[in-house]
Specification:
The protein is an alpha+beta fold. The protein contains eleven helices and 15 strands. Strands 4, 5, 6, 7, 8 and 9 form a six-stranded mixed β-sheet that branches. Strands 11-12-10-15-14-13 form a six-stranded mixed β-sheet, with helices on both faces. The radius of gyration is 30 Å and the shape is flat.
Length: 472
């Protein structure tokens, strides 16, 4: 019984130590002014404490907190500029030379300070990186009563923090595209083109395509050099391009990782891509039109309009954006402007969503490279899952993702998606060396120069590492 109590105490203590290790301390200081409310002061202290937590966690992730806060402040200043401008106008400040009287100047400066600090404490929603937090201490200096202090303990969601880091820092890297290829497909159901008031399909589709092209030429100016409506031959070429990249990626994953450098193979595959398609986008638009009913007495027809678009990034071979149009039912007169009214409705179906792309396309990620990693010596899927969790945690800064391709007997093949070079991935893999798996195994590498083969060996050393491909 005594031994059981000791064991339980050990487990509880171990849990408490582990839970404590997951928490990060943050310290915040703020010098208040007479008239500041306690609520305002607490928000400023919490904001300063969260900033300290974020700085510490960014360092643990290998990110530069200096870069993050520089970009954060830069974006806040841009955001706040219009707010300050409105405040200036309310106080009659129209130019930099405008001078305020003593009392009015004091009121203006206090209003500006309060507004700026209040908005900045909310800007960027920094607190969302914390899964939970508690205030451990809040105090004020006896010598300087306006000098305030807060200490918090927070549990940080590193995935959210990592995403936030890239959200604020990616602005320095903007992508430019050579071409935007546009392919439009129309699908008709329970109707013909004559039902839309046109004799030939091209009378309707050509007008729409040209209007969409002009829209992109206007909105994507400075982001995309050429807007191209595709021909049948170009569509086949684009389909072949996507298929070729997919096959090249598959071949790379099937190469034994002990028989060459994956990065060189990947570079050779990319070089073979048609130069015209590098750094280009392909927009595939599908429009569905269905006739619902017709009222011959009142000369009216009712249609349902819908569809979708797919936007492919041809460099990374990824689906960059997708949207299913919100279907619209509309009734038009068959005697007046039937084709024009229906074309106008179809034109605006995707345009609202495309407005968001104007902002986003410059920052589309280049996509993750795909690598194959083998794990041998595992006795269960649970042990493979633990290896996957280690890799995902350590590779967080490179958006590492792991999928299990296969698991037979004691060998698993993993597909690792990674934003970085093969050398970066090697470093990530090697950081798992010696970690315990399922309290039974530990991670070992036969060849640390090429760590794409992971061995799970017994902790007590009773099982020797497997030797493959003549490597030991």
């Amino acid at each position: 019984m005594k031994g059981m109590i000791t064991l339980v105490l050990f487990v509880v203590l171990s849990f408490n130590v582990s839970a404590k290790d997951d928490l990060t301390n943050g310290e915040g200081r703020f010098v208040s002014r007479d008239g500041d409310s306690l609520t305002f002061i607490k928000k400023q202290l919490l904001y300063a404490s969260v900033r300290d937590v974020i700085s510490k966690e960014l360092s643990k992730l290998g990110h530069s907190s200096e870069l993050f806060w520089a970009k954060y402040n830069e974006k806040f200043d841009t955001y706040f500029a219009s707010i300050k401008e409105n405040l200036d106008k309310s106080y009659g400040i129209t130019t930099e030379e405008t001078e305020l009287s003593g009392k009015k100047k004091e009121q203006y400066e206090n209003a500006l300070r309060t507004k700026k600090l209040t908005i900045k404490a909310r800007y960027g929603k920094l607190q969302k990186v914390m899964s939970s937090y508690s205030v451990k201490k809040m105090s004020r200096s006896p010598q300087f009563p306006n000098s305030r202090y807060m200490n918090i303990q927070a549990k940080v969601n590193r995935k959210v923090l990592n995403e936030m880091f890239y959200e604020f820092t990616r602005g320095g890297i903007k992508r430019m595209y050579k071409n935007l290829f546009i392919t439009v497909e129309f699908s008709m159901k329970d109707m013909s083109w004559q039902d839309l008031g046109v004799e030939l399909e091209a009378d309707f589709t050509s007008v729409l395509k040209e209007h969409w092209k002009r829209w992109f030429e206007d909105k994507f100016k400075g982001k995309v050099n050429n807007i191209i409506l595709t021909s049948v031959d170009e569509e086949e070429k684009l389909e072949s391009h996507l298929k070729m990249l997919s096959e090249a990626s598959s071949q790379l994953n099937n190469i034994s990782t002990l028989e060459g450098d994956l990065q060189k193979d990947q570079e050779r595959a990319i070089i073979s891509v048609d130069d015209e398609l590098k750094d280009s986008l392909w927009m595939k638009v599908k429009v569905n039109v269905r006739k619902i009913s017709e009222d011959e007495t009142f000369k009216k027809r009712t249609f349902d309009f819908g569809g979708e678009y797919l936007l492919f990034d041809l460099k990374s071979n990824r689906l960059a954006s997708h949207y299913d149009f919100i279907s619209e039912e509309a009734t038009f007169s068959t005697e007046k402007d039937l084709s024009s009214n229906s074309a106008s409705l179809v034109y605006r179906l995707p345009v609202g969503k495309w407005e968001g792309l104007v902002r986003d396309i410059s920052h589309f990620p280049l996509g993750r490279k795909s690598f194959r990693v083998d794990v041998i010596g595992a006795n269960s899927v649970r042990q493979i899952d633990e290896v996957e969790k280690y890799l995902s945690s350590i590779g967080l800064t490179h958006s590492l993702k792991v999928e299990i391709d296969s698991f037979n007997r004691d060998r698993a093949q993993l597909r690792v998606f990674f934003k970085g070079s093969a050398e970066d991935l090697k470093g990530t893999l090697l950081r798992t060396k010696g970690l315990e798996v399922d309290n039974q195994k530990k991670i070992y590498f036969q060849n640390e120069e090429n760590p794409f083969l992971i061995n799970l060996v017994d902790k007590d050393g009773s099982t020797q590492p497997r030797i493959e491909n003549g490597q030991g």
